[in-house]
From TrEMBL:
Keywords: ATP-binding, DNA damage, DNA repair, DNA-binding, Helicase, Hydrolase, Nucleotide-binding. It comes from Micromonospora thermarum. It holds the Pfam family Helicase_C. SUPFAM superfamilies: Nucleic acid-binding proteins, P-loop containing nucleoside triphosphate hydrolases. NCBIfam families: PRK10917.2-1 (NF008167). Gene3D superfamilies: Nucleic acid-binding proteins, P-loop containing nucleotide triphosphate hydrolases. Residues 290-463 form the Helicase ATP-binding domain. This is Probable DNA 3'-5' helicase RecG. One of its GO terms (molecular function) is helicase activity. Residues 486-661 form the Helicase C-terminal domain.
Amino acid sequence: MTSEQATGDTPLKKLVGEKTAKALASHLDLHTAGDLLYHVPRRYDERGEHTDIRSLDVGEQVTVLAQVQRTAVRPMRQRRGNLLEVTVGDGSGGTLTLTFFGNQAWRERDLRPGRWGLFAGKVTEFRGKRQLNGPEYVLLGSGGEGEAAASEEVEEFAGALIPVYPAAAAVPTWVIARCVRVVLDTVTPPDDPLPATVRATRNLVGLDTALREIHRPSSKEALYRARRRLKWDEAFAVQLTLVQRKHRAAARPARPRPAAPGGLLDAFDARLPYELTRGQRDVGAEIATDLATAHPMHRLLQGEVGSGKTVVALRAMLQVVDAGGQAALLAPTEVLAAQHHRGILDLLGPLGRAGELDAADHATRVELVTGSLGAAARRRALGEVRSGAAGIVLGTHALLYEGVDFADLGLVVVDEQHRFGVEQRDALRAKAEQPPHVLVMTATPIPRTVAMTVYGDLEVSTLSQLPRGRSPIASHVVPAADKPAFLDRAWRRLREEVAAGHQAYVVCPRIGEGPVSDEEAPPPEDDTGRRPPLAVTEVAPLLAEGPLHGLRIGVLHGRLPADEKDAVMRSFAGGDLDVLVATTVVEVGVDVPNATVMIVLDADRFGVSQLHQLRGRVGRGAAPGLCLLVTEATEGSPARERLDAVASTTDGFKLAELDLEQRREGDVLGATQSGRRSHLRLLSLLRDADLIRDARAEAIALVEEDPDLSRHPALAASVAALVDADRAEYLEKG
């Protein structure tokens, strides 16, 4: 195939041969020349610098740059033939043993002391020494007879910077490097889709230069410029998608829902037993203005646990009801939906009891729709929703089912939006004749760059002030393995709080036997050899017989029948239970001001943001809160450092940044929801904040001039390729 014929869409089998192409496809999901060019190196080893062999973990699949120090041949004990042991080092004292079985004298000649090479395999340990058994390798420099020492492969590493690719056992890094060279030498350089004015303004190298230098860098400076250009393309594609979406949404019609003086909202404000914080008033004014416009509001309301988001949302719902519409609040669990129902009824009082004897003038009805409603109750509730008598409708995903019809849905509030898939949110919006106004709420603080990248099409409001009356929360790590006495003290501390008239939570990562549900913490990826996570159904009886003997203990998890869950929560909220042993079903929204202490067992099994959310369940009243994070993680381990960080601050935004550092960037763009690999290969939402900000500014300017990118067809095609159909749909549905 000539260079004129080969493009980024050319199948790899036409360029590198069918066998290699099949391996690249099956092991690395690489099918075309373009796929391979965007399979960028994970890191670069530098001649004269060492790989830190001492940092390698047993069980890890690695590629190391090392120098042969010595070889030794000895007969095998159990079978005929010899064993060749090759010791390689990294120049810093770290060594690794390579073992080859069978009579392979040519390898001994090949692997002479002093030779440098790349060695790939799985790290094992034998008699205290780390080793690679039968590793693949390529030697750097001339000579050698090994299968990986062919001259065309060595040529890949002629430069000072040696690319090391994300690889597989069947496709080592040097095979990828050889294939990349073939593609670079064969494929016609792509036309650069980025407008020349943007390239010049932002000092970006051309796309062809970037792709060549990312794989075969001529210098560190050239590599930096190549990475910067490819990061820009990723950021720009996402920002263009979001800015276009925001532009289209602004053009859609929506029914204005202006405030009505003397209506439900004014009556509600008059009966509130406390004063709104300044933040609640300011955010409320922003939302009120949005609701009064002829275009749909699309706003994200974020605020720390207990910052008063529910009251802000309720005031928005009342404004819509005053304007003749209905508002729906979608909650992720029945426990939370039921709690919202109780809480809103309490806040509204006679204003939420239309049709009852003690109802106020202009009152509305508040309906709860969940999957566990009985047939008669369901028919009655759906009738109220359909007729419009229910101005406020609360529920779980049961609100999305066919047969739940609204008279005039004007506002959709999504609580803890990260717990819902895009299809669920979209299904509720589709129940309105015109696009409804949308308010999504989260108590998980979102770093600025994530808000800009994932929620870039939403206006963002933040409640940073806690209402008066909230108490401080102290957090401590309890190292159960190192200091068992500390765990005994934790249980005594819980009993002291109960004796003082307060209540407590004990949180476990697992329900018990059976399939893992959404509320259970998944085992970490490195969970080999560890005991199973502690389970609610196993821990509760042990506590009742042991350290919490004599206390009134309740159990709460997602597999309980809905009426039983509701009864347990009512008992706990009413003070009839001292201790609630639960899963993360209590993570969001559960509000029991008398609960002052939480003990999280196997705390290292939870994420940073999740622990912060859980901790927010205590300290909600006048008494200070205490959160004890029990772990067997050893001091100095990453898990222990994570828990120490949680214990050291209650600043949710700092913890959100830490959480982002420890997660795959692809999760942020919804890769977990689409099931596809991330397109953020190089861009870091933490480290590249300035670049993301600049890309957004350029995207806004370009979309204002050319909303559909009709004058930039190559750029539109590039955006479509980088933000694939699934990802665009994820961003589109928001």
